Amino acid sequence: MNMSNKNNISVQQLENDKKLLLEYIFEMNSQILKYSKYSIINDSNFLSLNVEELIQFLKKSSPQQPPPTHPPTQHPPLPVIPNKSITPPQPNSTSPSTNNSNILSPTTTITTATTTSITNNNSLYNDNNKQHLIKSPQSTHSSNSSTSSNSSLNNNNINSYNNSSNDQIKRLLPDNYGILSKDQFHFASYETYLLICHFGRSNDIVDLEKEETFRIQNEISKVKHDGFIKALSPPPPSSSVNNNSSNKPPPFSSILYRLWLLKNFNFNLFDTQESLLIWLKRQLYIVLASFSNLIKYNDPYDEKDNSTINQLKLLCYNLEISFQQDPPPQSNQDTIYLTPFNNLDYFIGNLIIKSPIINNNNNNNNNNNNNNNNNNNNNNSNNNNNNNNNNSPSQQNNLNQAIQATKYQIDKIIPYQFPLNTNLFEDLLFYSLFEFDDDSGSIKFIGDEHFRVSTNLKPFSVALKITPTMEMICQLNCFILAYNAEPNERHLRRLQLSLNAIQNLIEHSLSLIQDPNTSAGPLLKATLKSIAQWLVKFLSDVHSYRGTTSSPTKDIHLCCSIYVQSREMWNYLSTSSSLSSSSSRNSIQLKTSESSFISFITSSVSKHYQRISEQFKPLTLENFSEFVESLIPEIKLNLDVYTSGFKEFNSKSKMLALTEVVNLYSADLKLVFADVYFLSPMLIQSVQSASNFQIMLEKFDLIPKDSLPPVKTYVSSVIGTWCQNQEKDFTKWFENIFKLDKFTPLDKDVKHSSSVVDMFTMFYQTISTLAKMKGSLSDNFPAFILTLSALFNANCLLTYNTQIEQMTMCNQSKHTTLYPSSLNEKIQNKGKIRKSISTSSNQISSQLQSSLTMSKAIPDPNQTVIQTKLQTMTLQKLCICVNNLDYILLNINTYINEHSFNNETLRGKLKELFSSTQITIADTLKSLVDFIGTRVVFYDCKQSIVESIYSSPPLNTNDRISDILESLSPHLKTIYNSTQSLERGNDILASVSRSFLQAMEFAILYGGPTRYFQPKDAELIEYDLELAKDFFLDRDDNGVATAVSDELFESYVANLRKVVQLLMDLSSDILIEQYDNTNKGKSSQFSKEIILCVLVHRNDKPSRSFIKKKLNDPHYLSIKKNSKINFLT
């Protein structure tokens, strides 16, 4: 029993010793353990502590020199603030949004925090604010000690935080600490508005109706609004511990009011701890943001890590996690809450004392102190003792005094620091400019088109030190946000107008931007930088555009324009500091070169190409064709829509875009076709797809052919050789076939020659060979049919058509080959030609022939070649050529119908492939038929028709053209005997009839001085026209035309008949008068040239005199001898 008691005493003694030892360790390392998981250790769980684990933690976390300990009666230590100028931090940029809509608010300093995982087994998670809440360490100070000696802290206490490294502090902080969600920031902005515009005015000045309208505009519920009013109201004096003047609140527009409210607010205003924490963090984070900006005042956008800001964050975090104690604080006077708050209060007070911008007036009161401050600010030392040594005695006395911010010059306004002030303003400004349309789901502009700020926001902007210039810049930020939320051309154009207004301000009032007393300059530079960053990201990947406009081309063009403008504005501002006031009024020159957009174009194409190809990676023969099929429409869309947006800013944008595609495609092509040496269905399909892609690239005609992907280099030797052999074989076979053809009919029933039959026979044999592979080729068979068809089409059919054109000269100008020139000359009153009019027709013909012979004294080499071809190319050969082209057209249709292998898709593609060829051959046929008709009249029957008709004036009443018409009969017989069908013969007959009417027109208007007519001859000529009509229509017993149709002939003869009926029966005087009236601008059915043609064939005195006056007139020169004839028929 005694032994047992002795053992129990020994164990108990060891436990007590362990406890004492641990208490000493905790006291010596209180600053390290305070924010660790060991902060929750108390008397009840000391004995269960893993000592070995604790020692390892201390070894890892302890600084080289352990920090001094502080007796429990001392005030908690304060971090040291270096005695130097304080600069605000770079804001984190995200956009708060409302709680009820999709509208996003402007870029702000305080952004949405990512969920932070804290490795603490005792952490809580709050669903409302999406934050981990860490239990605060147990306070080692009583409520009395926390408030004692606040005004007389010694330097050792202030220096204690310096012993903890900045890295240690950062490890204790959650990631992205101090960042509000978008909704919470909007609430904070609205609370700031209430503090300034509601609480900052007396009750009789507050317009509750306007305030209600503003609340609705900002989409704040009535319940939240009332809750904000209640929470922001100064607590009654009874709720404060010290009910005296020292507890007087700062001005409502001061950032310190929020800090003062955190000190004095009533916890019982909130029904749950979660709602209290949400409100507290909103106020706390705004205070944190403002004083962080104050610390980085000289460079608001400095992104470097700042140890002072980290210390400030740590103190805020300590206050926040005090609510994780068990039990949590119950009031603002609870030690658990009051101790970390006082730490924060003193720290901020120290910031305020050292801030040159807040204490500028005070510093000016003491020149010596001011000089010392300037010297000290340049030292940039983190050691507080060194700073104190550099200060003057009076300055050191101020620094040695620990002053609470909530009691610092209580009536002085500590403003919200830049850029927090502009972020708060932009948040509410956005809601005054835009509203969310529930019906259309779009963002609707409701602001002022002249960029004037709403009167509701004016007091707000003034209190936040937002100048009118800064208001304009804030509006620009809102327009940027609106476009990013809803890419729409309207938002983009409004953004551009806003940018134009600011540019105009820069050009004419640069001093407003450069005013050192405002933040307009830094704000504008930050805005221009954000515009550039946004546009660089967008223009580098324009295919990511998800706008609501029908085409992104306009938006891309506008974005390029805005990019150029913002870039030049930035350059202008960067160099404008040295400009004089006069030079600052110079306009900003937009001189961004085309090379600035090359990277955008190539980057956009590259990223889009990678997105398309990603789903097919790795590319193989099995999926290459599918990849190409998906790539082709995207390339066309890119060139027509997306790249077109860059056109004005880079004239070679399409070439650059297509070049980038080709480079990327060529690399993939090489991988797919590398080391392929066997024939397979996938290979055939891939080769065809690559060929189609190559054809498409060539059609664009944007880059040199030698820069196109080398498709043939990567195809297998089997398929490559086979295709090349087929192409060579087609060319060789065609040359032999055409060379051996004599262009004679095969027999009396088959009127075409051998070449077209042999050509199609050769092609059908090739198709038959491929058809035997249909089973193994499967779905790739139609693609290969198309490939061979394309080769046959290009190397045979189109080549055959070209050979026919060259051989028959049907596509050459008939003025060069067949048509005569004008013979018009002035009829002489006396002389040889005048006498010849009374001679016989044989003499007239002899003179005409003699005249024509003299005009051809010098032979024309071209005419010699033409005459040789006309002699060798007989009328029968020409008709055989017509039959051959008809045969080709017929067999193309037969081939499409019979060799599409019941595949409608293939049938459609074959039709598409041959459609242009069919059109080309049909055009050649039409030209050839027209050429045959012209040849018959103006070459074969030149003497019997062209040189004979109306060559013996004056006209007599006897039959004038019957014999002439009959001279056509042998030629017409040859035509009908040589054409494959009656319909084609009638087509050629119609061409002959048209040429015959042209010959009559030649005789009447261009026949020369050996032909003249009188007004009475018009009736005779009109009769002759009817005779010609009867001849060519060849009516049956019922009067129905069996050859040329009545309508077609009338379309040919209409203009000539009009000349005969309306001009030739008029006297010369009337014709001259009509000519003169045409000269005066009066309307006439006939040109001056036609009237002159009629007058030059008159033998009376008025016409001869008139023509004599017109010998040098341009109208006469256009119809005189050797001029080109423009037939009316």
UniProtKB/TrEMBL annotation:
Q: Please give the Gene3D superfamilies that the UniProt record associates with this protein.
A: 1.10.357.50
Q: Which residues form the MHD1 domain?
A: 674-804
Disordered: annotated span: 60-106, 121-162, 363-397
Q: Where is the composition biased (Low complexity)?
A: 92-106, 142-162
Please report the stretch or stretches of sequence annotated as the MHD2 domain. Answer: 959-1075
Segments of skewed composition (Pro residues): 64-80
Q: Which InterPro entries match?
A: Munc13_1 (IPR014770), Munc13_dom-2 (IPR014772), PATROL1_C (IPR057984), unc-13_homologue (IPR008528)
Name the UniProt record assigns to this protein: Uncharacterized protein
Supply the source organism for this entry.
Answer: Dictyostelium discoideum (Social amoeba)
